[in-house]
């Protein structure tokens, strides 16, 4: 019963949109797309940039720990539990490997380590600072990815400290203790 009502409402909404669009007083202009000339060539650099954008759009959602099975790294740690990482790798490593094989050798996977805002950004006295902890997290995930078969020479690491907290969460929330990924030119 509900399905029939929803179907009728969707049909009425679609017809209404067609009527409004067709009866508009504005003059219509046809949009045409011009085909590229036969002698126009797309450079490999343009193709690489398009592919890079596509890969980085997908990688934007990749993070370890994933925030669901494990909220974030332990405070002041770069702990990777083998079972948890293997589950994460099962879902993500194949795409990372495939992405790197599609791109020329001068592109690398950049692993960016993050920290929460609990401590100082840089070392202060006996406190090592968020930069240090985010770097050791990135390095630990690099080592784990290499064990999964991702070539070490195609991975670079970077420490972001607490500069990029996840929106909607406290800056000191454990969910901010993570690594993220993107592909960059060497």
From TrEMBL:
Looking up Gene3D superfamilies in the UniProt record yields:
OmpA-like domain
Domain of life per record: Bacteria
Coiled-coil positions: none
Say which species the protein is native to.
Leptospira ryugenii
| Protein name from the UniProt record | OmpA-family lipoprotein
- InterPro entries linked: Bact_OuterMem_StrucFunc, OmpA-like, OmpA-like_sf
* UniProt keyword terms in alphabetical order: Lipoprotein, Membrane, Signal
A Gene Ontology cellular component where this protein is annotated is:
membrane
Q: Which CDD domains match?
A: OmpA_C-like
Which parts of the sequence belong to the OmpA-like domain? 60-186
Secretion signal, residue range per the UniProt entry: 1-25
């Amino acid at each position: 019963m509900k399905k029939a009502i929803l179907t009728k409402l969707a049909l009425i909404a679609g017809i209404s949109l067609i009527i409004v669009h067709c009866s508009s007083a504005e003059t219509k202009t046809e949009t045409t797309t011009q085909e590229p000339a036969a002698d126009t060539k797309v450079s490999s650099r343009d193709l690489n940039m398009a592919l890079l954008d596509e890969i980085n759009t997908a990688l934007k959602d990749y993070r370890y720990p994933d925030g669901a099975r494990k909220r974030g790294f332990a405070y002041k740690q770069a702990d990777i539990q083998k079972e948890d990482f293997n589950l994460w790798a099962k879902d993500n490593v194949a795409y990372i490997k495939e992405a790197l094989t599609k791109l020329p050798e001068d592109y690398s996977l950049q692993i960016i380590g993050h920290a929460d805002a609990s401590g100082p950004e840089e070392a202060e006295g006996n406190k090592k600072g968020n930069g240090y902890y985010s770097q050791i997290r990135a390095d630990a995930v690099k080592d784990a990815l290499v064990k999964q078969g991702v070539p070490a020479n195609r991975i670079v690491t970077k420490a972001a400290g607490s500069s990029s907290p996840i929106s909607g969460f406290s800056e000191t929330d454990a969910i901010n203790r993570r690594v993220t990924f993107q592909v960059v030119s060497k």
